[in-house]
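Reopening: structure tokens for the iron/sulfur cluster complex, inputs below.
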Amino acid sequence: MTERVIALVDAGRHQPLPPPVPQVAGPARDRLGRVLRDLRISVTDRCNFRCVYCMPKEVFGKDYPYLAHDQLLSFEEIARLAQVFVDQGIEKIRLTGGEPLLRRNIEHLVEMLAAIKLPDGRSVELTLTTNGSLLAKKARALRDAGLHRVTVSLDALDDPTFMAMNDADFPVAKVLAGIAAADAAGLAPVKINMVVKRGVNEHSILPMARRFKGSGHVLRFIEFMDVGATNGWRMDDVIPSSEIIRLIGAQLPLEPVDRNYPGEVAERWRYRDGSGEIGVISSVTQAFCRSCTRARISTEGMLYTCLFATSGYDFRALLRGGKSDAEIRAAIAAVWAARADRYSEIRTAQTARERKIEMSYIGG
Ligand code: SF4
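Re-run output (same inputs, fresh job):
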């Protein structure tokens, strides 16, 4: 009898806030000297796909205890928290999930967040990661609401392989239509994320590269990661990015390009014929923790300082407990100052089995 895997999503696993730290001028730095610059906000724990590397159907079935609506942060709470994070140094906000476009009236939240200004008057950079299933319908409205760019997950071009990865009866054509709609709405360049799992979709690497070469969009290949505790991760199922670059480069010559900015997750490669670029995200074989500037807010207001965290900090309690913005800001400063996460540098077969927070709960 197969052992039933229980996902770790409950807020029960939260740590007390660290002691307060003196407010410093300039960006907050953690214990490895990294600044707090990027905030990922998960707006729903639900999704209409069941990607095997994120939300396997056998765990996230129809009777799965998803969060009740009143447990989710409201749009007003998200916008308030985002403003306080921006005051603490955040410059970029990414909306995630689950599938963020499933959250009703998400355009309204985008509008509220797009109005947030950095201390120097610039607008906060606002992006969103989606599986593309609802993008064709929503792209224009999201753009009009103030969204800057989208990242679309697409793991193959043929339906059988795509469905083997997303375990949902959803055709590739509709996701491609979503990418085209995002492009037409001005949410370009669209970044396209392909998670590669050995034995499932590596035969799609070259067809995907050919499909998006010269399109203006940036295809990124993501190493299969031991996120959460439910995707049955094994190192044997990981195809290292170096192998992906070799495979593509043999057919479509590539050359390395510098990252756009410190902390950029993807390693960039451009086609020698000038027809665009691709990226690889190598959390397993080439850790990039030393430049990680990301914090994550879960669907119900927990703050996590690493994608592979096992516990977080309850900021919903601060929001609903009558704390002032200054008190919440001080709590952010204390959490960040105490941060020393570098999971990808210390990953072992044993740590891979730790009960980590589910990616569908805190966003990729
Ligand atoms: S493993 Fe954690 S610390 Fe390292 S890059 Fe990923 S989120 Fe950042």
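The mean pLDDT is 94. Residues 283, 288-289, 292, 294, 306-308, 341-344 surround iron/sulfur cluster (CB under 6 Å). Marking as resolved unless the reporter disagrees.
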